[in-house]
């Protein structure tokens, strides 16, 4: 069993910054991809950024140059540094982690979500 704990969301004015964290714990042998998704009211969940175990990152066009994804493999933690925030970034942000478990399986897990609200 794996648990994901997200933190760092909140209310910020446009142009401000927030840093999200997602820590994985439990029966983890290794972690492959770690992603951040977001879902705004009335919209589908979308991929914001992802990072591989080797550190290769990819971003949605809407956040390129403003958001930075990183990970600490020793802590099984992924971060999302969000700068120059815009009202359209308002959403619930979810982390997604693909874990290799001690028992040998690979399974995907979602965080509980953290609200990010950007005021204009």
Description:
The protein is mainly beta and 120 residues long. The protein has strands spanning 2-7, 10-13, 18-26, 28-39, 46-51, 57-59, 67-72, 77-82, 91-101, 106-110, 114-119. Strands 2, 4, 5, 6, 9, 10 and 11 form a seven-stranded mixed sheet that branches. A four-stranded antiparallel sheet has the order 1-3-8-7, with no helix packed on it. Strand 4 and strand 5 form a beta hairpin. 31% of the residues are buried. The model has no long low-confidence stretch (mean pLDDT 96).
In short:
This protein has 120 residues and is mainly β. 0% of the residues lie in helices and 62% in strands. Strands 2, 4, 5, 6, 9, 10 and 11 form a 7-stranded mixed sheet that branches.
């Amino acid at each position: 069993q794996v648990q994901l704990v997200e933190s760092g969301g909140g209310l910020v004015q446009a142009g401000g910054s927030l840093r999200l964290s997602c820590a994985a714990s439990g029966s983890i042998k290794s972690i492959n991809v770690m992603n951040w998704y977001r879902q705004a009211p009335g919209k589908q969940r979308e991929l914001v950024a992802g990072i591989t175990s080797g550190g290769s990152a990819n971003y949605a066009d809407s956040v390129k140059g403003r958001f930075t994804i990183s990970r600490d493999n020793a802590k099984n933690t992924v971060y999302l540094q969000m700068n120059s925030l815009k009202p359209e970034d308002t959403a619930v942000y979810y982390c997604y982690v693909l874990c290799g478990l001690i028992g040998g399986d690979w399974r995907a897990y979602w965080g509980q979500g953290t609200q990010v609200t950007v005021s204009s």
